[in-house]
Amino acid sequence: MALAAYGAMMVAMAFDFSSQINPDGVAYLRIAGYYLSGDAGKAVSGYWSPLYSWLLMPWLALGVSGLLGTKLLAVLLALFWVVGVACLGRRYLESSITRRLLVVSAAVSVLTWSMEVISPDLLLAVLLTYYFYLVLDPATIVRPSRAFACGVLGGFAYLAKAYAFPFFVAHFLLTIALYACARFEPRLLKRYVAVTLAGIFGFLLVAAPWVSVLTMKYGRPTITTAASTRNIPAAVVFGASNPDRAPFSSELKLAPIEPGRVTAWEAPDEVHVPSTSAPAVVSPAAARSGRLQVILSNLIVIRDKLSQFDYFHLALGALLATAFIGFLRGLASDVGTRYLWGFFTVSLYALGYLPLWAREARYYWPVVGLLMVLTFGMAEQIVRALTHHAESVDGRRVPEGRRMVLAALIIAFSYVQVGSHELLDRYRTTGIDFGRLAAQLKDEAGRRGTTLQGPIAGNYWPSTVYLAYLMNQPSYGTTTIKDPRLLAAELSRLGIRTYLVFNDEGLAERLKQSDRFRALADLPMKPRAMPAGTLAAFEVFERDAGR
């Protein structure tokens, strides 16, 4: 009943947040549409993993709007994740109050994650949480059927996000090695090998078909094309000193896109930019220094991201404490093995982002559930350790019940405070309803006796992509040129018909005075907010058309 009430509340939230949009979400929605229309050429992508788009297809087929469909899917994923965290908690927690407060913490925390961004990270969190629950079962080490199920979950995790491919392979093999060391028996050696092969076979059974499709598309063995310079900081690849990355090369401003697409972001791995400058020569020492800078800065970022999920920053302390408890108890103890496994699981997943773009909190959602469990688990361990030998004044043993409740409440408050604060902040922040803006643009252009036509371009890339998707018009990108004649020449050369100006009233006024542009609309982006922001749309003439 509680789960049903929670789900009903989240469905209402889905409608409230149905205007939220982000560039990755546009790409996944467009790919889902290509699958529905049978356009496999555009649908298959090595950059965007397919499972999230596949799960969006039923919503689109039922006529649900794309943005609302992503939120309704997020409701289901959030429910599955909360149940998965509750199941995972049973591997570590013994106290019923601790288990219940874990569920409350997970339920509150996931509210904001599920609605704040359209991405497959919550889907990956669901799959890995159930994989963690299954692989922690002591029977997995001796039952190939359990290992096979772990491999299948790992394969689906890869289809959700390519990062799961190397993570699952490394994690599964290390897990088997850990269990084998903890319970090594020569007579079970063949069983360990069978379990390992069963898990890898289950993984390949799911992952190999998609790898084959990508290999045929790109003409070379391909697991993903997302491991590119767009997701790996330049310093790691070239030795540059800048640890940041951008969606596209700085040399790319405006460019035509494949017919039928609305943005180049649908296939960023297929965007090729001819270099206009000679490649910089970087010395080996500078390259090593640049890579080291990125790794060290990412180490700090990862620490900060893992700490921001709870108010008192208990998660990292609990993670270190799990290593201590694990080594203290030793592999001979089931408790020691579980806690060592938890430590290396979170560490392996998080540190895998050291050479990558690591600066978004959503990348770490897949291990937050395990972090919560470990935090509550350490509370149980500490309370039991402190009360085990404690005696009251009259010589009787001190009961641990109240202390356990107090410790669990402190941890629950730490997670719930952050989750509820972020949720309230999202509700209080006035976002931009791009669906409303798209409709107003068309209406305003109609009142001025014309229609808004593509291709379009703008001075701000994300907002241009959002309106291109909602108006179903191709977007050729952005440019920062502000001279009206030079801007018109560049736009006309590519056949761009509409130019959008976001939050730049000075540029909008100059374009209104130019013979090469005609104003189509001038709208506030957030009518009831201060500042409201501005959007001006202009028709582009190929040559002087007179005022």
Question: What are the main properties of this structure?
Answer:
547 residues, 5-stranded mixed sheet, globular
> How many strands, what sense, and barrel or not for the largest sheet?
5 strands, mixed
Mean of all residue-level pLDDT scores? 87
pLDDT below 50 for ≥5 consecutive residues: which ranges?
234-246
Helix segment tally: 20
List SSEs in N-to-C order.
HHHHHHHHHHHHHHHHHEHEHEHEE
What is the first-to-last residue Cα distance? 66 Å
General shape: globular
Would you mind describing this structure in some detail?
This protein has helices at residues 2-16, 23-37, 40-43, 51-61, 66-89, 96-116, 121-135, 144-160, 164-182, 189-218, 234-238, 284-307, 314-329, 334-351, 365-388, 401-428, 434-447, 461-471, 484-493, 505-512, and strands at residues 456-458, 475-478, 498-502, 517-524, 534-540. The protein is mostly helical and 547 residues long. The chain has a five-stranded mixed sheet, with helices on both faces. β1, α18 and β2 (475-478) form a beta-alpha-beta unit.
Strand-helix topology:
Blueprint: H1 2-16, H2 23-37, H3 40-43, H4 51-61, H5 66-89, H6 96-116, H7 121-135, H8 144-160, H9 164-182, H10 189-218, H11 234-238, H12 284-307, H13 314-329, H14 334-351, H15 365-388, H16 401-428, H17 434-447, E1 456-458, H18 461-471, E2 475-478, H19 484-493, E3 498-502, H20 505-512, E4 517-524, E5 534-540
Parallel strand pairs: 1-2, 1-3
Antiparallel strand pairs: 3-5, 4-5
Helix pairs in contact: 1-5, 2-4, 4-5, 5-6, 5-7, 5-15, 6-15, 6-16, 7-8, 7-15, 8-9, 8-10, 9-10, 9-14, 13-14, 13-15, 14-15, 15-16, 17-18
